[in-house]
Every structure is written in structure tokens, then in C-alpha cells.
Design brief:
By secondary structure, the chain is α/β, with parallel strands linked by helices. The protein has a single domain, classed as P-loop containing nucleotide triphosphate hydrolases (Rossmann fold), CATH 3.40.50. It contains seven helices and nine strands. The strands form two sheets. A five-stranded parallel beta sheet has the order 2-7-1-8-9, with helices on both faces. A four-stranded mixed beta sheet has the order 4-3-6-5. A hairpin with a 2-residue loop joins strand 5 and strand 6. Helix 5 crosses helix 6. The longest helix is centred in the C-terminal third of the chain and has 18 residues. It is globular and about 50 Å long. The termini are close together.
């Protein structure tokens, strides 16, 4: 299936936040974040549509969540926060890949909305690999938690990954991710499993 938008990007695995930030910093013309929604009141110096889309009516946002208009939502401090399908679509149709930091469940929600994400899994070789790439923040207990979480993600959502990347160090991981996305941008088509076809 041909796509006429820049596909959203989801990276799973260790150091995904670092990789996401680096992609946006290195290529702001290609990658962007979307603007989340919240029922939290606007603070001084915040601008509607810059930090958040501020939703005055909590019931409306709850209804939108129930009607699957959000790929992911939750509550924090008594306020709702969420990423809407339209916010992702806005970025995708601005010719930028919307970088998403979401759970695996969001993948199918995007697919149902007709936004087929590029899902990249950074596979750690072992706990030592994570420790070696943590730098000064190296902590064996934390590395073990990250490794176990990665295994869970792979087990539960591995069939939805577009590609799995396994390299010696983070620099090589980043280079492979960039090469893969660059290739995907030239292809402009997406494979859809038969059960997802409409």
C-alpha cells in the first residue's frame, strides 16, 4: 500500500529517549513530536497548541478517549493527558515523522486509524551491552530491569516491529536507524498484514 504521509516513528528498547532526542536535534526538518492534549489548566507563559492542546471540558476528553480518538491517554495529578490521532496525523501530513514514546498497544490504534508506523526495536545483546552503553549512569540492577522490559516488549509486540536493530554501540544503532528511515522514505509503501486490510 502506498502512503502519502511521513509515517510515525516508534522506537522500543534501551536508550530510546536518547535516540529520539538525537533524531529531532539532528534532523528537525524530518522529525517532530506531536502536541499532547490535557485537561490541566494552562500555566503562565504556556501557549495553546505549543506545549499542549488544553481541553476545558474533561467529559469531552473522556468521551474522545472512549471513542478511540487517542492512541494513548492517562491520568496524572487529577488531570488527563493524551496523544490524539489527529495530533499525530497533523505531524505526519506536514511531511515529518512524528516521534512517539508510547506503549506497544498504541501500534494497533495507529494502524486502525490508517497511520502505519515505522516500529524499530533496538535489541540489547545482553545486560552487559546495556551497562557498557549507560556510561556514568551504569547500574547493574537498572540494566537488568531494562533488559527484562525489552524481552517483554519483544515477546508481546515483536510481530508488529518493522525492523530489529542489534549493534555493538549506540552510535552504530543510531546510524542503522537513520539508514533504515532514509530507505523507508524512498520506498513510500507499507506492507499490511492480511487481517489489517480493509
Amino acid at each position: 500500500m502506498l502512503v502519502d504521509y511521513s509515517r510515525p516513528l516508534i522506537i522500543f528498547g534501551p536508550f530510546k529517549e536518547t535516540i529520539n532526542d538525537q533524531l529531532i536535534n539532528d534532523h528537525p526538518d524530518i522529525f517532530a513530536s506531536c502536541i499532547p492534549h490535557t485537561t490541566r489548566p494552562k500555566r503562565d507563559k504556556e501557549v495553546e497548541g505549543r506545549e499542549y492542546h488544553f481541553v476545558a471540558n474533561r467529559k469531552q476528553m473522556e468521551d474522545d478517549i472512549q471513542n478511540y480518538l487517542f492512541i494513548e491517554a492517562g491520568e496524572y495529578g487529577g488531570n488527563l493527558y493524551g496523544t490524539s490521532i489527529n495530533a499525530v496525523r497533523d505531524v505526519a501530513y506536514s511531511s515529518k515523522h512524528c516521534i512517539l514514546d508510547v506503549s506497544g498497544r498504541a501500534i494497533k490504534r495507529l494502524i486502525r486509524a490508517g497511520l502505519y508506523p515505522i516500529v524499530i526495536y533496538v535489541k540489547p545483546r545482553d545486560i552487559k551491552w546495556i551497562l557498557n552503553n549507560m556510561g556514568e549512569e551504569a547500574n547493574e540492577d537498572r540494566a537488568k530491569q531494562i533488559y527484562e522490559k525489552c524481552n517483554d516488549i519483544e515477546e508481546n509486540f515483536g510481530d508488529l516491529f518493522t525492523v530489529t536493530i542489534e549493534e555493538e554501540n549506540l552510535s552504530d544503532v543510531y546510524d542503522r536507524i537513520w539508514e533504515f528511515i532514509d530507505h523507508e522514505n524512498t520506498v513510500k509503501s507499507v506492507w499490511i498484514p492480511s487481517e489489517e486490510k480493509t
